[in-house]
Amino acid sequence: MKSLVVDKKGELLVEEVPMPVYDDYKALVKMIACGICNGTDTKLIHGNFKGFEAYPAILGHEGVGRVVEKGANVRNLELGDVVLLPFLEGMTGCYHSGWGAFSEYAVVSDWRAMVEDGKGPGTIWFSEAYYAQQVVPEFINPVSATMIITLREVLSAAKRFGFNENCSLVIFGAGPVGLCFVRIARLLGMGPIIVFDLIDDKVEEALRMGADYAFNSLKAEVKQEVKKRFKEGADFVIDAVGINELINQAMELVKYNGKICCYGISPNLSMELDWSKAPYNWTLQFVQWPSKLEESEAHSQIINWIQMGVIKPEDFISDVIPFHNIIKAFEIVEERKAKKKVVIKF
Questions:
Q1: Which residues, in sequence order, are CB contacts of 255 under 8 Å at separation 6+?
Q2: Beta strands per DSSP E along the chain
Q3: Are strands 193-197 and 213-216 parallel, antiparallel or unpaired?
Q4: For 75, phi and psi rounded to 5 degrees?
Q5: Which residues pair with 78 in a beta bridge?
Q6: Sorting pLDDT into bands at 50, 70 and 90, what band is 311?
Q7: 3-state DSSP assignment of residue 313
Q8: Which among 67, 72, 260, 329 is least buried, having the fewest CB atoms inside 10 angstroms?
Q9: What CA–CA distance (Å, rounded) separates 236 from 171?
Q10: What is the widest separation between alpha-carbon atoms in the chain?
Q11: Residue 300: exposed, middle, or buried by beta-carbon count in 10 A (0-12, 13-18, 19+)?
């Protein structure tokens, strides 16, 4: 099969690799689509993903695929099921797993069968990631379903941060993650919501997603716009970009006993914090690695919102590009030409 591989120098290549091997509790999946993650995938390419040094690696984690074969003990997945989060475990030939969903085939587990047969959590056979390998309902377009992964991650992070109704919120960044935070915060009853970005089109998109106010931070005075609306500061300030300096900027925007929330993994793993302009009491919280168990627990809520029509996964996607143009697709992301999520279709 063909897979997208990155080497230690950051060069991307489409390589022929062995088909994945699967055991009695797993199923072989033919990939349908996979989203490009501006965080994980790009950091693996640039070699600054915290704790990852296993190169060459096969990229991709926002995958959706269809079950085409299954192991003898798989009883909760059927041939033809569309599933989220297929990946490649361990080595595939001489290539490591960078989660591996930018491949023509990948693997999912029947984690329920594993639990029933005593091969669940705490055993050598089980990974927490299996919980998040859920079936996609037939009413959802499988290409657009790639966005469910980001939506689940953001909802689980929102719960981890302690989002509550009627709380004010400032969000830095109106990319795919920032827009998910806007929509989910609105559905959770939060507000007012203020969004800042550097690109006018993204500012407009944030308003369409439900932000009460949105500004280009190159043209607006951030502190002035926030304090005009939140005299005492915001309950929550979210870094949805992964730029450490936003933490210092957030210090004078957060209210007393408020919270600064950092989502994702910054490429810079240290900085100097200056809390001279912050209130005396405040909290700084990182969610650098979404729990796959918590992500799976968010699954039904996201599906319900999609079924109700209050979330439309396709609204977060700007480009769908065929797999044979995947190198070009990554160039679009790298050059910041994509307005929203870029999805690769197989």
A1: 168, 230, 232, 233, 234, 235, 279
A2: 2-6, 12-16, 26-35, 57-58, 62-70, 82-84, 96-97, 105-109, 169-172, 193-197, 213-216, 234-239, 254-263, 282-287, 317-322, 341-345
A3: parallel
A4: -130, 0
A5: none
A6: very high
A7: helix
A8: 72
A9: 8
A10: 63
A11: exposed
Which residues in 182-203 are b (16+ Cβ under 10 Å) and which e?
bbbbbbbebbebbbbbeeeebb
Rounded Cα distance between 341 and 338, Å, is 7
Is the confidence at residue 264, as pLDDT, over 80?
no
The whole-angstrom distance between residue 254's C-alpha and the CA centroid of its chain comes to 25
Query: Residue 65's closest CA among 94, 24, 22, 96?
Result: 22
What was the pLDDT predicted at 268? 81
Q: What is the dihedral of CA 108, 109, 112, 113, to 10 degrees?
A: 140
Instruction: Determine contact, residues 249/224, Cβ cutoff 8 Å.
Output: no
Tell me how far CA of residue 238 lies from CA of 40, 63, 101, 334, in angstroms.
Answer: 19, 26, 29, 23
Nearest Cα residue to 289 out of 260, 261, 259, 263: 263
Alpha helices, DSSP H, located in 199-251: 200-209, 222-229, 245-251
2-144+314-345 folds as: Quinone Oxidoreductase; Chain A, domain 1 (3.90.180)
Q: Is 50 left (phi over 0), alpha (psi -120 to 50) or beta?
A: beta
Q: Could you tell me the residue ranges of all domains in the chain? A: 2-144+314-345, 150-287
Rg (the chain; Cα; Å) = 20
Q: How far apart are CA 170 and CA 25, in angstroms?
A: 44
Q: Tell me the pLDDT tens digit for each residue of 67-102.
A: 999 999 999 999 999 999 999 999 999 999 999 999
Task: Note the pLDDT of residue 270.
Answer: 86
Structural tokens at position 257 = 């006993």
Prior bond of 121 cis (ω within 30°): no
